[in-house]
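Person: I have long wanted to understand how a fold can be written as tokens. Underneath my words sits a plain record pairing an amino acid chain with its backbone structure tokens. Those tokens are not coordinates but codes from a learned vocabulary of shapes. I should like you to check that the lines agree and flag anything odd. The protein I mean follows directly.
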Amino acid sequence: MNNYPHPIIAREGWPFLGIAIVLAALVTYFSAVWSIPLWIIALFVLQFFRDPARTIPQHPNAVLSPADGRIVVVEKTQDPYANREALKISVFMNVFNVHSNRAPVDGKIQDVRYFPGKFVNADLDKASVENERNALIITAANGQTVTCVQVAGLIARRILCYVRSGETLARGQRYGFIRFGSRVDVYLPLTATPKVTVGDKVSATETILAEF
């Protein structure tokens, strides 16, 4: 269920894409001109739900990006989920990024915590503590704790998580999805070395965020 073969278009988008194409085709039957906006919407849905396969770096100490997007935070702060001081790295996803979420490390899930909340712009720092969010607390293969948090955004209204406490994750494994713009926060031990800076563009699985 969690690591299904990559179908190019994420399964979460199949109903939306199907509806968009059917509506556009119906309107085209009556008027090609009036159908143009609907075909544009269908193309947007197609690009939003794309889900390409990714190459997984083999560096044993690497912490991989769980999402596509842009780095908006690299700082030392409090990890409110694992109750510790941590290095926080945040990835902001806009509507043009791939929105599949992937495991940053090999490890075992110790806890999964969901928090209802607001839907302010995910680019803002307060989104990490005020917005709807879902946190995974993972014990990595080397024994270090990694917290990975899906955060809803201004437009995002649905966080999907397909894993549970006690399950084992493999780095690069697809574990969730957030619809229509959002953010993922990663909390690491203070001894981790960041490999990205604010403003960098990153790709899920293929970009190394930090090293243990």
User: Anything to note?
Assistant: The mean pLDDT is 87. The helical segments are 14-30, 32-48, 127-130.
